[in-house]
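Holo prediction. Input below; ligand is zinc ion.
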Amino acid sequence: MMQNPVLICDFDGTVTENDNIIAIMKKFAPPEWVLLKDGVLSQGISIKEGVGRMFSLLPSSQKEEITQFILQDAKIREGFADFVTYTKEAGIPLYIVSGGMDFFVKPILNGLVPDDHIYCNEADFSNSHIHISWPHTCDGQCTNECGCCKPSIVRRVAPEQDIIVVGDSVTDLEAAKLADLVIARDLLLEKSEVLGLNYKPFQTFYDVIEHVKEVVK
Ligand code: MG
Ligand code: ZN
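Structure of the complex:
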């Protein structure tokens, strides 16, 4: 049983049903974005390079259009609000750790998760094309060029605690390797199996609540 659990939860494809970066690129980017995405998913190029170059394909003049589109398009996964309530009642700190961008992550989580429990990247629209700044880059122990470095954040916010990582993709893998329990779907589920991590599958946040209850009772 965990004495001192902390929840580290991904955003894109986890809190939301789909990946918002992919949705934005599909709608607004020229075809070059596909190669960059494939490079990131196959771990051929770093997340930081791939995602940074994808956003640099988009003109800053489309800020309003992109923001409106993604706030309408994003769907929060079933059970998330109840999951947030559960973590408060159970006294388990919940951090959203996201490779997504502030202009959609924070508005979508507004009223659910306070800003000081959200770690994400920042999009700068002040030049001709979108520039991503990376406020949470890798610490000295990570050489993956993560962009938003999930393992570095885990080390900082939960150095001694029992770590539960909730996620869906390769971008959660380095944090998952540090976790005592991984609650996973999609690609992260496959990778957790291959790496022999302690993992449970989920579809909705009601599944996540059940898996957490099993280890913190
Ligand atoms: Mg994700
Ligand atoms: Zn890193």
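The chain has a mean pLDDT of 96. That is the main takeaway for now.
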